[in-house]
Design brief:
Length: 595
């Protein structure tokens, strides 16, 4: 094996806008399919794995939502012959050809299965029956004649692709079924659930074997057969497991396993007859974006292990989101995908050395937006960040561009700078719905990481975004679950911090009231002194008038009115003094209570 390159890496965040993605399952894996959000429906895009260019862009009917995605080849049949009544076998054989059509198999939440032709760029078959539940997974046999679907209720339906009609139906005994896999001969159908796998004999329509994983009872999200001796590979979040389905034993155990400590995101095995011997090649993409590779012999004895990582400078890991094996130039390579579903970046990586052994720890260095690849001082980096902040134009186009390029630092910087409700609403109104799903999940993730005080601006963005797109988001089960979980987190934070805040606020208000009362009391004391002065002056004036005996009738009336006014004023001041005494008494009692 090659020389190992050691490095410590810090993973950046995974792109969040992929609803589904899948590689073409042919040996050369010509296409990479993605499903992402559109305005009122889902959008299917195909990319060429060699050039990385988008080749197809198809929008589903309004309101149609994708629930599963896979690939297959179907037999090319004259549509007029299919619609007509059954004729003789000779006539049917004469109108059939050996040509096959590459299709993307799209399961929908309405229970339909759409067969999208890559060549014709349209849906050429629709398989459905009344009141069908949402499709969880679907698979086409190698002959291209039969399709199997697994619904959310656990029903398994066998379809004739040519007739577009169901031919058989049965129910799994698993409490939850998630994935389907079909062996090379098309005789065994595997159904994966929580820690168990059912192997169905499709001819007899019964369970031939049950595979139980005693070590891992987690949900089986990945399931596939290898072309080597009907070896079955399953994957949970915890790791990868290998099963030998041959033999007469009804209960089959795991013969080998590989752990993925970071968590398993995607699993692949070499499909098609390209192995030279009894060698199994496995590929796993972790949740942090590292590709794990295993090459092992059967029966499992020794295994060769490697990894693929993409890093930017300064030890920042760029996550790989999807990967698959391909046969290129008579050797095995891997196609890796990074970036968002808007513009994924695909490239082919060689994984074998001259002796057909796995290269050890493959490290690829690439540049990404928002990462400075030149080594410089911390001061230079800070100056660059300040300059970028000053140069950033706070327009909706800036945020849209940052979301499309999956530039999280720029997105967070924009959210920090734009805080006015009017500006937030204006930006949200101009945001393409294609970006809303990923943007919302980013906001939820950031709000969960901050305190109530720190996340005030982020919560405002989240509130306005949900309000603007609630009618469309309410049908997205995953989004509503994340929002419900966030609500519980915020309630917990509020219960822990708000009582303390209210206590401090109450204490501050009490102190302010005490200060107001004391200020009012000082003011009343000053008024009392002024009144005493006025009374003294009035007494002197009255004495002077009496000695002079110059009062007239009008003056008597004025004097009486003045005395009445003075009496009223004295009475008012006495009441004020009593009120002040009462407030002082209450203040003393409050102070004693607070002590």
């Amino acid at each position: 094996m090659g020389k190992s390159l050691k490095t410590k890496t810090i993973a950046t965040d995974m792109p969040m806008d992929y609803i589904f993605a899948s590689f073409d399952k042919d040996v050369n894996s010509e296409y990479f399919a993605t499903v992402s959000h559109s305005i009122e429906n889902h959008r299917l895009r195909l990319y060429n794995t060699r050039s990385g260019n988008m080749t197809h862009d198809y929008q589903l009917s309004s309101g149609e939502l994708v629930s599963s995605l896979s690939w297959g080849n179907i037999t090319s049949v004259d549509q007029e012959q299919v619609k007509a009544k059954k004729s003789s076998k000779r006539a049917r054989s004469a109108n059939s050809t050996d040509a096959s059509i590459k299709v993307v198999v799209i399961g929908t939440k309405s229970g339909k299965v759409l067969l999208y032709s890559v060549e014709e760029d349209k849906v050429i078959r629709t398989l459905s029956k009344p009141d069908s539940p949402a499709i969880k997974d679907s698979i086409i046999n190698d002959q291209g004649t039969t399709l199997y679907t697994l619904s959310e209720t656990g029903s398994i339906v066998e379809w004739s692709i040519e007739e577009e009609e169901p031919t058989s139906e049965w129910n799994t005994k698993l409490e939850d079924g998630y994935k389907l896999a079909l062996n090379n001969q098309g005789s065994l159908l595997a159904v994966g659930g929580d820690g168990q796998i059912e192997l169905w004999d499709v001819k007899k329509s019964n369970i031939a074997k049950t595979l139980i994983n005693e070590e891992d009872k987690q949900q089986i999200n990945h399931l596939m057969f290898s072309s080597v001796d009907d070896v079955l590979i399953s994957g949970t979040e915890k790791g990868v497991y290998i099963w030998n389905t041959r033999g007469k034993k009804k209960n089959v155990k795991v013969i080998a396993s590989f752990s993925v400590k970071e968590g398993l995101r995607q699993l692949d095995v070499i499909n098609g007859k390209i192995e030279q011997d009894q060698t199994l090649h496995l590929l796993a993409v972790s949740t942090k974006g590292t590709v794990y590779l295993w090459k092992t012999s059967l029966p499992v004895k020794d295994d060769d292990e490697s990894t693929i990582k993409i890093v930017a400078s300064k030890q920042v890991q760029i996550p790989i989101v999807w990967a698959t094996f391909i046969k290129a130039q008579k050797t095995i390579s891997v196609v890796i995908v990074r970036g968002s579903s808007v513009k994924p970046i695909l490239e082919t990586v060689g994984i074998m050395d001259d002796k057909n052994n796995l290269l050890n720890e493959i490290i690829l260095t690439r540049q990404i937006a928002g990462i400075n690849n030149d080594v410089g001082s911390d001061q230079e980096e800070e100056e660059d960040d300040n300059k970028k902040e000053q140069d950033m134009q706070h327009t909706p186009e800036t945020l849209i561009k940052a979301l499309q390029s999956d530039n999280k630092p720029m997105v967070l910087q924009y959210l920090k700078q734009v805080s006015q409700v009017e500006d937030i609403d204006n930006t949200i109104r101009r945001l393409p719905y294609l970006q809303v799903h990923g943007f919302l999940l980013l906001l939820v993730d950031q709000v969960e990481r901050t305190t109530i005080e720190q996340g005030k601006g982020l919560r405002l963005w989240l509130k306005q975004l949900v309000s603007a797109y609630y009618d469309k988001l309410k049908d997205d089960h995953k989004v509503m679950l994340r929002l419900a979980a966030l609500a519980r987190v915020l309630n917990l934070q509020a219960n822990q911090s708000l009582p303390k805040m209210y206590a401090l606020r109450g204490r501050a208000e009490m102190i302010q009231q005490q200060l107001d009362i004391r200020s009012k009391r000082d003011l009343l004391e000053e008024e009392d002194e002024l009144l005493e002065l006025e009374e003294s002056m009035d007494e002197n004036e009255e004495y002077k008038d009496e000695t002079q005996h110059m009062l007239t009738d009008d003056d008597d009336e004025d004097g009486i009115m003045h005395l009445h006014a003075k009496d009223e004023e004295d009475m008012f001041m006495e009441e004020v003094d009593e009120m002040t005494d009462e407030e002082d008494s209450d203040l003393d009692e409050d102070s004693d209570d607070s002590m």
